[in-house]
UniProtKB/TrEMBL annotation:
Organism listed in the record: Streptomyces violaceusniger
Keywords: Methyltransferase, Transferase
Keyword Methyltransferase belongs to the record: yes
Pfam families: SpoU_methylase
PANTHER family: RRNA METHYLASE, RRNA METHYLTRANSFERASE 3
Top-level taxon in the UniProt lineage: Bacteria
Keyword Transferase carried by entry: yes
Single GO biological process annotation from the record: RNA processing
Domain named tRNA/rRNA methyltransferase SpoU type: residues: 122-263
Protein name per Swiss-Prot or TrEMBL: rRNA methyltransferase
Amino acid sequence: MADLITVDDPDDPRLSDYTGLTDVELRRKREPAEGLFIAEGEKVIRRARVAGYEMRSMLLSSKWVDVMRDVIEDVPAPVYAVSPELAERVTGYHVHRGALASMQRKPLPDAETILRGARRVAIMESVNDHTNTGAIFRSAAALGMDAVLLSPDCADPLYRRSVKVSMGAVFSVPYARLDSWPRGLEAVRDAGFKILALTPDEKATTIDDAAPHRLERVALMLGAEGDGLSTQALMAADEWVRIPMAHGVDSLNVGAAAAVAFYAVTSGRPGL
């Protein structure tokens, strides 16, 4: 059973995992270096535990102690009970959901391991917005994608905002970072995948005509919001595909486009 510890000093060193959560640049560097990530909210914390992540500690406002009582009784990690005001001083923002947990990261698998058991894979290039990252992972989980691969410069899927937007779906979909870009795509092709680049370019085949759901193994490549896929990524793809648009709309937000494309890739797949 965890120790329930009341803390009233915002400078208490035991709360160091939670300091400066709104400082994006600091947390992006610090969290991977220290092997931790922050889970926010009851559902996300529970999903992280179900996914096998070890809890380092938990920070709760007093009214959430009873809600999380079963977790408190089940984990050996310390649980810090604080006032909402103190939580805000430590984290830098009003913790609306009243519950935070510092979780231990797991070692990431390599791309070859991820690809071995997959048939439907999403590849993200330079997607740096944490909200979009979380939305893409949530769609990947909901629509049956087997795995996600990230270019070296993609945002961290375990950053607090990504985890929150995904509602913990980042824990459900295996993912790996490619060591180089776009050279790392060679490993995807060597594993038997056809690489489709999602682009609004009129020269691209409509995704309906491409019929990706009929392919034995398919990897769908997505670019960053606004810029889309780089020229190098487009050149490395086997085929360009696009979502047909109406009413003069030229493109969708990358999170929305991912959901539409994932459905096209997985529809009719056995077991879905």
